[in-house]
Amino acid sequence: MILACPQCHGLSRVPDDRLSDAPSCGRCKSPLFTGEPIELTAANFEAHAAKADLPLVVDFWAGWCGPCQSFAPVFSAAAAELEPGFRFGKLDTENQQALAARFAIRSIPTVMVIKGGKILGQQAGAMPKQAFAQWLKQFSP
C-alpha cells in the first residue's frame, strides 16, 4: 500500500499487514500515522487524495463557522480511533479557496471521502460522533 507522509508528504510503500505496526516514512523517518488530522493545502492535497492508497477523509471547514468548531473534536477523535484504516485531513476553506471551489463546497462543514482522486462520499453538516463513525463504515477498506 502506498501512503503519503503527514510530515514531508512523500510517498512510502508499506505492506497491508504492516499498517498497524507503526510504520515510518522512508524519506523523513517520521511516523506515517499520528492519530491526528493533517492540514491539507494545495501543496500536499494530491499526495494524500490521489497518489496514496488509503481513503482520505476531508473536513472542509472555516475558523468563523460555529458548527465547524463543534465538529472539530468529533473529527479529531475519529482520526485517533480509525487510523490506519483512513487518513484524516482538514482543509481550511478560507485559506484554500481554490481547492474548496474545485470541490464546489457550498456549506461547511462538509466531509468528503476521497480515494484515488475520486469522491466516494460526501456529507454536509456537523455530525455526532456515533453518526460520523456509522457514515464512515461504508467506506472501510
Automatic annotation (TrEMBL):
Q: Which UniProt keywords apply?
A: Disulfide bond, Electron transport, Metal-binding, Redox-active center, Transport
- A Pfam family that this protein carries is Zn_ribbon_Thio2
Looking up Gene3D superfamilies in the UniProt record yields: Glutaredoxin, Zn-finger domain of Sec23/24
Q: Where is the Thioredoxin domain?
A: 36-141
Q: Which SUPFAM superfamilies match?
A: Thioredoxin-like (SSF52833)
The family assignment reads:
Belongs to the thioredoxin family.
What the entry lists under NCBIfam families is as follows: PRK10996.1 (NF008229), thioredoxin (TIGR01068)
**What name goes with this protein?**
Thioredoxin
Q: Which organism is it from?
A: Shewanella litorisediminis
